[in-house]
């Protein structure tokens, strides 16, 4: 298979025509493979060779969590009782910043690790929607493999906004190009690609932008602060495509003294303590969404995107959004009824309601 890193001076059409996908997969028949176990980078939390997102508002400690996962994978240390497969990690710090190195040093000190040789940092954004940038990414990954002697297990893009290349997050076409680029990187490296993303105006409605992103994800987590006065986060799984969703848990962060500056003042950084507990503020945890797939999932994410943007959520609007995605909506009523039965949404006439709006409606009827 030809590596994208060796391709030069090609047009977009030529790149699309190149054999950049993995070798053809053999057909299977009947229930062959039913007993095969799913492989994970962090067992039960992050599948291998998957597309993952963690989202939350600014100040929710989502980048601290992503980096904590990265460090555990780089060292092979278990995370909150979950087994971890050791491997190389590439952390794309799209927002740059001096703080990333301080956070890594705090982790080394807290976990008594001399150095994190398997963790590589890129202190600049990279744009998966751009084919030349994909080539550059593959070159970086090849360099990391050669230097560490380890296969890439995880690539973190922090944040989506910085790695989006100035495109429109609400455009399904632009988001589609970003997703396609992430899939290409995932296929060529065998690594899980994790996107750190900002939530929209309504935090409960998911990450910002087009509903194409959550629909394409294998796993999605929401990160929120566990109370305003605590150095703690709540981790809630809003989507786990092929496994059981883990229960929401809270994780505390601790301050670590990493050095003393030239004025004699202590310099500290925060580090996640990977020991889960019950969230102290239950309102910060999302309700566990029933396992939905395919068309049900498309309805759910189209609705969530509309609420996030403050748009109407009538049946007609959602049907139009699904048609724009190329779906046949003849069975829309059946899909919607499934979500109603699961308690995921509530229907009021032609309006579809979810999240806090559902609770408000129920309270009004009591």
Radius of gyration in whole Å, from Cα?
21 Å
Instruction: Report the order of strands and helices.
Output: HEEEHEHEHEHEHEEEEHHHEEH
CATH topology of the largest domain: Rossmann fold
Structural shape? globular
- Level of helix content? 25-40%
Q: Could you give a short account of the major beta sheet? A: 9 strands, mixed
* Total domain units: 2
In DSSP terms (H or I, runs of 4 or more residues), the helix count works out at: 10
| Mean pLDDT over all positions | 83
Summarize the structure in words.
- The protein is an alpha/beta fold and 366 residues long.
- It has 2 domains: 4-284, Rossmann fold, CATH 3.40.50; 294-365, Arc Repressor Mutant, subunit A (Orthogonal Bundle).
- It is built from 10 helices and 13 strands.
- The chain has helices at 12-17, 62-75, 99-110, 131-148, 172-189, 212-216, 294-308, 315-324, 332-341, 356-365, and strands at 40-42, 46-47, 51-56, 88-93, 119-122, 152-158, 192-198, 219-225, 232-240, 249-260, 266-272, 345-348, 351-354.
- The chain has a 9-stranded mixed beta sheet with strand order 5-4-6-7-3-8-9-10-11. Strands 1-2 form a two-stranded antiparallel ribbon.
- A hairpin with a 5-residue loop joins strand 10 (249-260) and strand 11.
- Helix 4 (131-148) runs parallel beside helix 5 and helix 7 (294-308) packs across helix 8.
- Mean pLDDT is 83; it is low at 1-15, 283-293 and 356-366.
